[in-house]
Write a structure and sequence with these properties.
Shape of chain A: elongated
Strand content of chain A: 25-35%
Order of helices and strands of chain A: HHHEEEHEEHHEHEEE
Number of strands of chain A: 9
Number of helices of chain A: 7
Number of domains of chain A: 2
Radius of gyration of chain A: 22 Å
Oligomer: homodimer
Strand order of the largest sheet of chain A: 3-4-5-8-7-6
Largest interface: A-B, 26 and 25 residues
DNA sequence: AAGTGGTCTAGACCACTCT
DNA sequence: GAGTGGTCTAGACCACTTG
């Protein structure tokens, strides 16, 4: 049923009820996920893609647009279409304003805080963590604790959980060799591209040790950020919990 | 220079350096803002718009798409294209989870909290407020204080400032006649459509009176939400400050 | 000048909604 | 079945970037 309508089914998709551009987008998404089109590189020009796929230019463009709005591709007028290098500035400083009472949002002006790795070792994922990472119960993950500092002053405490076959290179990396920005480091050392993240914010209080580490009084009010970060394939590949002084918390949310 | 290239300049736009679809989008935006195409109503079909404007169908569709992503229009396959009725669910409950330890996000399931107007009277806008509302210094605004309750329990305290010629109908409305949802009420009583809002979140502590009103201990930790809301024309027409128990605070932010 | 993405045309046909 | 938006075609030309 739904047999080949013509001579060749090599080019366009036979899928029923699915727009041709959606089928194309899916096919090209696979090539990106597989690394066939590597991160940061240009993909073939629109005209060539359209010709290869046997569709009109407009149809190919619609497929590309879908991948752009999914954050997998970036178009640059006159230069080409590129596979995303992933998030660079998903900084937790989106949620906090440290330093001398900042002026209104000036991203880019804010310096990247220094990172100090406190501990990192393989552990068993909890049931909940395994579920969120899409792993088997009790799977091995790398647990990382780090502190983030601005001008030498501790401002954030973080704990991360990273699936372990995937992030093996980091399990053996000396704490002093870790970069301040993790996502570009994931990309370089583990071939993991972070495309999307979801942050869940809540309020709590610091315990004695946490407060001491951040130079605050015990029971100081704190904001907790629980992050899930996703790769090109849409898999959750990082869990992270960040703690910071609630009095430095400031965040702008747009509706619509 | 750059004079009319043909016989008639009645239809397409002569603007240089601006895409034709952008010009059309601007023209149609004006009709929406002016109320020429009223809120909630269907606009003429694409084919008619394209014919009127003297452009190809694809060009008209691109202009409409721009207005859709700006939140001014909504398309419904098979039915038509409609001017937005504005935000209905910009509820502050996006930021708080009250009641019996809610399950993961189930919007729509959360009930609309009841609204009790505590006070409303015309005042002079502060310099800062006037600036943000785009008004002259010391302009008249309606200041409204209200409490929001869930199952009769006070959970949020709000203060609003509304520009006064515009919101005059509310200045004389009996406190008991106010609706629980403000934005549909703005639309009905003042012909103001709220399309977009920006919320600035920060952390603080409740003073004695505020804590008493919310049934919390003095100095209880609080989250403060400072909102600016915008109408179809992109003008800021509402300032609002909301206070709630920080321990009920929970918010999910997506990156990219 | 060559190569890329962006805009635009003038059609055709399909999918959905309502009466 | 009539009317709407959604998809698709096969071209053309424009705007931007780079050698």
């Amino acid at each position: 049923m739904g047999a080949a309508p013509g001579l060749l089914t090599l080019t366009a998709a036979p899928a029923v009820g699915v727009a041709r551009w959606a089928t194309l987008a899916g096919r090209w998404r696979e090539r990106i996920v597989a690394g066939d089109w590597p991160s940061g590189a240009a993909i073939p020009p629109e005209t060539e893609l359209a010709r290869e796929a046997g569709v009109a230019l407009g149809t190919a463009r619609q497929a590309l647009s879908a991948l752009v709005s999914d954050g997998l591709l970036e178009r640059v007028h006159g230069r080409g279409t590129f596979v995303t290098r992933g998030l660079a500035q998903a900084s937790m400083l989106r949620f906090f304003r440290f330093g001398p009472a900042d002026l209104p949002d000036t991203p880019g002006a804010t310096p990247v805080p220094h990172s100090r790795i406190l501990a990192r070792r393989p552990v068993r994922a909890s049931t909940e963590q395994a579920r969120r990472l899409g792993l088997a119960d009790g799977a091995r993950v790398l647990r990382v604790r780090r502190m983030r500092l601005i001008d030498g002053r501790p401002v954030l405490l973080e704990t991360l959980w990273l699936p372990l076959p995937l992030f093996e290179p980091l399990a053996v990396l000396a704490p002093t060799d870790w970069d301040d920005l993790l996502y570009p480091m994931y990309s370089r050392r583990c071939r993991v591209t972070i495309v999307r993240a979801a942050d869940e914010l809540s309020f709590g209080a610091l315990d004695a040790a946490q407060a001491r580490a951040l130079g605050l009084e015990a029971q100081a009010p704190a904001v907790r950020v629980e992050r899930e970060a996703f790769d090109l394939a849409g898999r959750c590949v990082e869990l992270r919990t960040t703690l910071g002084d609630a009095r430095a918390f400031r965040y702008r949310a747009e509706i619509r």
